[in-house]
Design a protein that fits this description.
Elements (H helix, E strand, L loop, with lengths): L3 H7 L3 H5 L2 H10 L1 H20 L3 H8 L3 H18 L6 E2 L16 H12 L6 E2 L4 E2 L4 H11 L3 E5 L2 H13 L3 E5 L5 E2 L3 E2 H7 L3 E5 L7 H7 L4 E7 L15 H11 L3 E6 L17 H6 L4 E5 L10 E5 L1 H9 L2 H5 L3 H13 L3 H7 L1 H6 L3 H19 L3 E13 L2 E16 L6 H13 L5 E2 L1 E3 L2 E5 L6 H6 L7
Parallel strand pairs: 1-15, 5-8, 5-9, 9-10, 10-11
Antiparallel strand pairs: 2-3, 4-12, 6-7, 11-12, 13-14, 14-17, 16-17
The structure holds pyridoxal-5'-phosphate.
């Protein structure tokens, strides 16, 4: 029989932890609020671990080592925060794959693999059988081909680099045909027309109306044509009387003329998202089957991995991409590779993907579950803020983010916090409130909308850590 009350009693109090000489020193250097928040968060973590009867935690407490463990963890977390401006935040913005907030959160397996490969020498470019130089791409190529059915694959720093490399390899000084409706701009810095220009390609828009037809492409082909390209219209949708030429028809046209057809999927996915209750998004496999000779997509959007640009397709074309001297400048590093290998491996078992891949877990989280989370968090917020604001749990919509499925919104719930202020001061109060949340030891980023601060709890996993620091909210 586990004596939980005894274990809870054995947890050292906040005051006794803060009395530790190392932490007293830390309070003097870093400020007491930061240290206090870290202590509370860890204490809450241990309480939950006892509740869940976590064996390692119970042994640690029984051995009398928990005080030292908490002190060490506090020292480490505060040190990380102080030594770097890059720090963890709570993403309660309602956008799951948020480019400003670091996009995909990685699964534990990926982080463990990153640590291992970073700490030790490894066979990144070394063939252990032959005892000679190996190919960096070989590690990822096998699994990418297995998962997508492509003949060959290579990986670079991000998808913008993948697109640049493909354009530069096949269409430098030549024309690239692309449908007028697909001249995408993503987040200001990635505009297809500019990428084309920097790759030395001539953009040739095809179709002059809201509808682009196969005959428009065929009429545009000439001796200067280097590529046929399709770009996923990531962050917008053209509705109404429109027409885009299906990938299969463009691929056939390209084959007829000996011109490669490439598709930039942007936020490519490897599974049918409908099986997770999400809207359909073109998969990499579907695009290859439709006849795309090369497909490019991001590692840290729907795929849920680290920042990377993946290129899969025909062996001959991939070989040409790899021969491009730019490839060397755009290659990924060993730490990213370690993470990506782990993330891809999770796709071998789609049935367990939802519980193992944080991005998918967040995207497919049910509205009921999020509402329950809001109800659990509401009292702690009300007790700190009710004098200055009204708070309520409201239905809202989350976004997938990073341009994927721009018009499809996910049912979610948020805590809406509306400052109580006189007419002319409402805006200032609201700004002050959101700033106070952003200034917490682990900043909370919500969304200001319609006179209130919305905290969409879809992505809140560390409830204890969230509650633990609320006392620091400066009103
Ligand atoms: C996001 C996106 C890119 C850029 O990908 P990064 O991995 O962010 O470099 C390129 N093309 C499309 C269609 C995209 O959606």
């Amino acid at each position: 029989m586990i004596d939980k009350p005894a274990l809870f009693r054995a947890l050292p109090s906040v005051d006794s932890i803060l009395a530790d000489p190392a932490l007293r020193q830390l309070c003097a250097e870093a400020g007491r609020p930061v240290v206090l928040a870290a202590v509370r968060s860890l204490q809450e973590k241990y309480r939950q671990a006892i509740q869940q009867e976590d064996r390692a935690t119970m042994e640690l407490i029984q051995a009398g080592d928990v005080h030292a463990a908490i002190v060490a963890a506090v020292l480490q977390s505060v040190a990380v925060r102080r030594s770097s401006s890059l720090q963890p935040v709570f993403n309660l913005s309602g956008t799951v794959i948020h480019t400003n907030l670091g996009r995909a959160r990685l699964p534990r397996e990926a982080v463990a693999a990153m640590e291992l490969v970073a700490l030790e020498a490894n066979n990144l470019e070394y063939d252990l059988d032959r005892g000679a130089r190996g190919d960096r791409d070989s590690h990822l190529e096998a699994i990418l081909c297995e998962l997508t059915g492509a003949e060959a694959a290579t990986v670079v720093n991000n998808n913008a680099a993948a697109v640049l490399l493909v354009l530069g390899t096949f269409a430098k000084g030549k024309e690239v045909l692309i449908s007028r409706g697909e001249l995408v701009e993503i987040g200001g810095s990635f505009r297809i027309p500019d990428v084309m220009e920097s790759a030395g390609c001539k953009l040739r828009e095809v179709g002059t109306t809201n509808r682009t037809h196969l005959k428009d492409f065929s009429a545009a082909i000439n001796s200067d044509t280097g590529l046929l390209m399709q770009v996923h219209t990531s962050n917008y949708e053209i509705r109404g009387f429109t027409n885009a030429v299906p990938a299969a028809e463009l691929a056939a046209l390209g084959r007829e003329h000996g011109i490669p057809f490439v598709s930039d999927l942007g936020s490519g996915t490897l599974v049918d998202l409908r099986s997770f209750g999400l809207p359909y998004e073109t998969t990499v496999q579907d695009e290859l089957q439709a006849g795309a000779q090369l497909v490019t997509f991001s590692g840290d959007k729907l795929l849920g991995g680290p920042q990377a640009g993946l290129i899969v397709g025909d062996a001959e074309l991939i070989a040409a991409v790899k021969r491009n001297p730019l490839k060397r400048a755009l290659r990924i590093d060993k730490v990213t590779m370690a993470a990506l290998l782990q993330v891809l491996a999770l796709y071998r078992d789609p049935a367990r993907l939802k519980e193992r891949l944080p991005t998918l877990a967040d995207l497919s989280r049910g509205a009921d579950d999020i509402e329950a989370c809001c109800q659990r968090m509401l009292p702690a917020l009300v007790s700190r803020l009710s004098a200055a604001a009204t708070l309520e749990v409201v239905a809202c919509k989350s976004q997938i983010g990073s341009g994927a499925l721009p018009t499809d919104l996910l049912d979610s719930f948020a805590i809406a916090i509306r400052p109580i202020a006189e007419q002319g001061r409402r805006d200032a109060s609201l700004q002050a409130l959101s700033l106070a949340f952003r200034r917490l030891p682990k900043p909370v980023v919500g969304r200001v909308h319609d006179g209130a601060l919305y905290l969409d709890l879809r992505c809140l996993r560390d409830e204890a850590g969230f509650v633990a620091q609320l006392d620091e909210l400066a009103p």
